[in-house]
Amino acid sequence: MKIRSGMNENPLVRLPKEFSSGDNSPMSINVTNIIVEARQKALEDTKNIPIPPVVEKVDWPVSCTVGPGLEGAISAETKVGYVNGQKGWLVYRGYNIFDLCAHSNFEEVSFLLLHGRLPNAVELKDFQATLRSDLKINQSLRLLMSFDAEHLSPMAALRLGINLMRQRQTFRDKEGVVVVSGSIASDEDSIPMETLPKGEKEAIYSFQGQTYTRPASPGENLAASTEMDSCYRLIAGVASITAAIIRLRAGKMPLEPLEHLSHAGNLLYLMTGKEPSALETRIMDVSLILHADHGMNASTFASMVVASTLSDIYFSIGSGVAALSGPLHGGANEEVIKMLQEIGEPENVTSWYKKARAEKRKIPGFGHRVYKAYDPRARILGPLAEAVTVGNPEMERIMATAKALEALVVVELGGEKKIFPNVDFYSGIVYKAMGLPAEVFTPLFAVSRVSGWTARVMEYLERNRIFRPRAIYTGEFYEEFPSLESRG
Ligand SMILES: CC(C)(COP(=O)(O)OP(=O)(O)OC[C@H]1O[C@@H](n2cnc3c(N)ncnc32)[C@H](O)[C@@H]1OP(=O)(O)O)[C@@H](O)C(=O)NCCC(=O)NCCS
């Protein structure tokens, strides 16, 4: 492995020469200023930490120290994104997260992650139009509604919805052998006919006389389902399904996207039924950019493992959703809100903290496996949370409590243990201040991370090798097989 000793310059120092997109409304200028200030603070706080060495060329096999759970293991090369926990850097395709949040938008960032470069104006417009059109997945949503989706957990419903998209988008509709819409329209009683059992033990249903056939070769299926179009459909589809689930859970019908809204704007509209303000859209956009990619985290790795078997991208992204649903991965932001409501007031922070520490509780929204400096995403979300909570007494109290807790935890645990707020500490406050229910916080993570998942899967498939780590066997070898009766 060829390693450069240090980078010539800190990517946070460079200002972008030109902005690829921009909304010049006064609101967005404020958000941009908040982010630029957060970048300055990050720079100041980490200026004495040495710039890390950078790998220029990898000669496989590489040596590394591996801990349990593959901690420290190097499993792939990537140009998609980079996280440095000491300096607090998060970089997508060479662009630091502060610049992307200040000057870009989620569509542009998704294009960047997937294609490795920023789009030009025409490409960006086309991509935005494609995503907007791909938000319309009415057939998949109708299928989802036939599954009692409102009673599933939102992440389970999202996983199901992705499977249903797969049904629409891969071999079934490509083959044209089954008119799925026909079967959706019919409930069990109206299935047109049941073929007569010809010696079979089970009955076989026939939809409109057509039968489903698998594609001739697995390659055919794969080609239909790993192309870039499927990545676009998934980026849009995860947003549509999430919004539909939230509406169904509130007893409302899913909506269709509006032509004049951005991806972030439509996401908010599809969830709430209200056209969002410029500020709400901008803040959702920033949040989507912030969560889009983050190294080889568990859900990204899960997606890549499934893709490496030459399964398809819908199954791969479904695995990412499944991994993200676990409380050790997505979901801490929901816990943060519960905790802040439990604390109640800034005055209660000290006594609450003492009790929590005495009980050896981990404080939700603090600490990170990789970041030993302040999480750059929290640097952006913190001041944004402060901005959106102004004027709402309940949220102002929650925000004041959060700030008091942060101050105390950083004094108590920041020095030696390097425990600082992570991305989840302020994201829930931002979402709650925008009127979004807590149950959508983790699915919103997926709405954004799907662009990182798809980008990394596509990159890995270019030089695919099936993932196959080892476990160290520490069991027995010479047990004598006992009969069933002798086992007690
Ligand atoms: C994110 C997290 C799982 C990282 O875990 P990790 O890298 O395995 O770190 P560890 O759990 O080994 O913690 C290292 C030390 O810091 C302490 N610590 C870590 N996070 C802490 C927290 N949130 N509150 C209090 N102490 C914490 C641990 O108790 C441990 O202390 P010790 O050395 O005295 O035993 C962990 O910080 C955590 O559970 N945070 C709260 C949940 C959360 O916010 N998750 C979202 C992450 S984006």
Tell me about this structure.
The protein has helices at residues 26-45, 97-103, 106-115, 121-134, 138-145, 154-169, 171-175, 180-185, 218-226, 228-249, 263-272, 278-290, 298-308, 313-324, 332-343, 349-358, 376-389, 393-414, 423-433, 441-462, and strands at 2-4, 54-57, 81-84, 89-92, 95-96, 193-194, 205-206. The chain is mainly alpha-helical and 488 residues long. The protein has a three-stranded antiparallel β-sheet with strand order 3-4-5. The protein has a two-stranded antiparallel ribbon with strand order 1-2. Strand 3 and strand 4 form a beta hairpin. Helix 1 packs antiparallel against helix 17 (376-389), helix 10 (228-249) packs antiparallel against helix 20 and helix 11 (263-272) packs across helix 12 (278-290). Residues 13-29, 172-197 and 200-223 have low confidence and may be disordered. Coenzyme A binds next to helix 19.
Which helices and strands occur, and which strands form pairs?
Blueprint: E1 2-4, H1 26-45, E2 54-57, E3 81-84, E4 89-92, E5 95-96, H2 97-103, H3 106-115, H4 121-134, H5 138-145, H6 154-169, H7 171-175, H8 180-185, E6 193-194, E7 205-206, H9 218-226, H10 228-249, H11 263-272, H12 278-290, H13 298-308, H14 313-324, H15 332-343, H16 349-358, H17 376-389, H18 393-414, H19 423-433, H20 441-462
Helix pairs in contact: 1-2, 1-17, 2-12, 3-20, 4-10, 5-6, 6-10, 6-14, 10-11, 10-20, 11-12, 12-20, 13-14, 13-20, 14-20, 15-19, 17-19, 18-19
The protein binds coenzyme A.
Coenzyme A binds next to helix 19.
Which features does this protein show?
3-stranded antiparallel β-sheet, 7 strands, 488 residues, two-stranded antiparallel sheet, Citrate Synthase, domain 1, binds coenzyme A, 52% helix, 20 helices
